[in-house]
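Action item from last meeting closed. Structure (440 res):
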């Protein structure tokens, strides 16, 4: 109680004393301690103000960065969309250019077949000429010893027959022999005459065939140049395409390159596509869970397109209109070979013959493959695929859409020496080889 009272009493006394002091005395000393808190407050306020300014600047910079990132993202999306659109246009252009080669390639194939037939006919004429000349040489050699006698008989018949006196029966026998010999000489002379006439006819026919061959070859080279230019244009357009499907197409081609056989290549392609379809379905479900219906719809649409394949499927053709190359069939489907029954059709085409697509579809693989040489795998749709192996040059690339009958490449150059190039054509449905003949 006392201590409290004492403190309470002293406070007014001290305050009254301080108020009574002069301004220049102890009051000045009393005010100095009061000024220090104001100084500290100003420093704290300045520091807080600086922190606030720094935070505001950082916030503004962060907003600016976010806005720039959003702008960059929008630009990238815009560029990606433009690239996708350009890729789509390039792919459509490649497909259109491929379709435009169909008629020209068909004309070229007919010309190549005509040239091959003419070449075969000329070879047959040369063979016939050689045989006739050999027969004429043998007949002339056989007739030559009799010609002096025939000439003497024709000039001096009496002197020749009566050169040596003979009994009547011997003379009659001699006349009969001479008569028979003359008939044989006349017969042989007619044969020689006919064969020489045939040789002259062959010479004329050969001259005509060679002239026609020259015209056909010029036409063939001109048509081939036109088709090759169109095929290159389609290939370049496809190569410019960088659509989203390009990565899937590359994955399919890579899978085929790793395969050890055609059957394994087809199986790997099927497996890769099934895996891609499954991933697209998973992406569609994830997009649905995120309520992104547009992305889900796009993923499902792409999965459906992949499941349908690269084309409308295949249908039987009539009259051999779908033959992929000019020439003759060397080995038919099912024909017995050294390795068993043939699983495809092998053609013996002319040199540098154009090769046409046997169906409408998408190129799964195009390039060298094991011992098959240059090979193409063409997805016709509905799990049908054509395999074309043995080409010299390829005019398509993986992922490219081609029309039935469009140019896809050409056979190697062949001058008649060494092993003749052949085109092996196989049709597979899933993992099984089927007879391609009804579709060629």
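Sequence:
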């Amino acid at each position: 109680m006392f201590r409290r009272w004492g403190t309470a009493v002293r406070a007014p006394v001290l305050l009254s004393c301080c108020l009574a002091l002069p301004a220049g005395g102890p009051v000045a000393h009393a005010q100095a301690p009061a000024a220090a808190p104001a100084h500290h407050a100003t420093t704290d306020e300045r520091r807080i103000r600086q922190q606030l300014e720094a935070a505001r600047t950082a916030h503004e910079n962060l907003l600016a960065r976010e806005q720039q990132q959003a702008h960059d993202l929008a630009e990238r999306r815009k560029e990606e969309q433009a690239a996708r659109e350009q890729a789509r246009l390039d792919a459509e252009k490649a497909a259109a250019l491929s379709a435009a080669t169909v008629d020209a390639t068909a004309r070229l194939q007919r010309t190549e077949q005509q040239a091959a037939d003419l070449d075969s006919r000329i070879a047959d004429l040369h063979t016939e000429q050689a045989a006739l000349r050999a027969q004429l040489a043998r007949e002339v050699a056989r007739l030559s010893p009799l010609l002096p006698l025939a000439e003497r008989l024709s000039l001096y018949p009496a002197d020749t027959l009566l050169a040596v006196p003979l009994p009547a029966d011997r003379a009659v026998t001699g006349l009969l022999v001479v008569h028979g010999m003359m008939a044989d000489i006349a017969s042989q002379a007619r044969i020689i005459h006919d064969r020489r006439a045939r040789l002259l006819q062959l010479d004329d026919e050969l001259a005509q065939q060679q002239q026609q061959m020259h015209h056909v070859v010029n036409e063939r080279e001109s048509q081939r140049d036109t088709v090759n230019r169109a095929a290159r244009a389609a290939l370049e357009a496809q190569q410019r395409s960088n659509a989203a499907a390009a990565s899937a197409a590359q994955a399919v081609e890579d899978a085929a390159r790793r395969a050890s056989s055609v059957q394994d290549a087809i199986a790997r392609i099927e497996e890769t596509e099934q895996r891609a379809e499954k991933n697209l379905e998973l992406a569609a479900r994830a997009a649905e869970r995120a309520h992104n219906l547009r992305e889900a719809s796009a993923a499902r649409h792409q999965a459906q397109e992949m499941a349908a394949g690269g084309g409308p499927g295949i249908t039987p053709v009539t009259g051999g209109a779908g033959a992929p190359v000019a020439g003759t069939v060397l080995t038919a489907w099912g024909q017995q070979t050294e390795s068993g029954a043939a699983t495809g059709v092998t053609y013996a085409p002319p040199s540098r013959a154009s090769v046409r697509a046997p169906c409408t579809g998408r190129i799964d693989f195009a390039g060298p493959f094991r011992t098959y040489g240059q090979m193409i795998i063409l997805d016709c749709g509905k799990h049908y695929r054509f395999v074309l192996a043995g080409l010299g040059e390829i005019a398509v690339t993986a992922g490219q859409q081609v029309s039935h009958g469009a140019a896809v490449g050409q056979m190697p150059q062949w001058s008649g020496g060494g092993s003749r190039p052949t085109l092996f054509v196989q049709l597979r449905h899933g993992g099984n080889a089927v007879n391609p003949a009804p579709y060629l």
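Note appended to the action item: Helices lie at 2-20, 26-143, 147-155, 157-161, 168-240, 245-258, 262-289, 293-308.
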